[in-house]
């Protein structure tokens, strides 16, 4: 069984005025995993990160990291935690290399130019090492934030919207970098509004809304438990009503009788088997069809079912078209 390195128990944060940003959150993060925390804006993702990283004081509950209770032994735990914040505010007038080296020194570590060079090269920042941060593009500035977070070689790394505002190519490059960090034994917790990001990288996924953790599960198990199969069948002739031979299938007529829509299964392959049986039943009933389109639920489909369409974090239309 994997070793837990972060344990949140009953974590609650209520701000003056009554806003409950975190509501009795229980969560255990295991060593070496990539955990994605998803939820709409204002769900509590950044507050949770802030509580672990010492920027937000919880109203109640406990946080244990690497066996340390953060309320009593914060410094020992914090030096093993890295944070890539969502905001780009940083020491804009500093050259890249100096800013990253300074971040290492903040954690009491001795200078290590070789390690700083290694980090900058891994993020394609070495050629920009002597440029001021203010002169860099938005994507490069975000890479600097990651470099600063890695400078003290943390064992647990928080990434708050790590690829927001960067182009598709850079986003995929960061995915590869995160996977490499996991390969070196770093545990990664990321918040993201790109559901494809969680689908691509995460071992486990948590869904949070209004400060409450609604669901936590392994990605594959979540998709198996909540996934569905959807099939659209184009008919050769219009159908006025579903015949008795097909009545036991979860289907409905669409496209003014020229199509059938199947929705069923459970994410384990049952849906595909039922679609195959449905096509045989159509043939047996003498009903011709001219096309069939079958798709399995994505992680985004599952979030729509859990959160509702309006609350699902997703890319903007422009970003989708860019992909």
From TrEMBL:
Keyword Transport in annotation: yes
Molecular function as annotated in GO: ATP binding
InterPro entries: AAA+_ATPase, ABC_transporter-like_ATP-bd, ABC_transporter-like_CS, ABC_transporter_ATP-binding, P-loop_NTPase
Protein name as it appears in the record: ABC transporter ATP-binding protein
Entry keyword Transport: yes
SMART domains, A to Z: AAA
One Pfam family it belongs to: ABC_tran
Keywords: ATP-binding, Nucleotide-binding, Transport
Annotated ranges, domain ABC transporter: 6-235
Superkingdom, natural source: Bacteria
Organism: Qipengyuania benthica
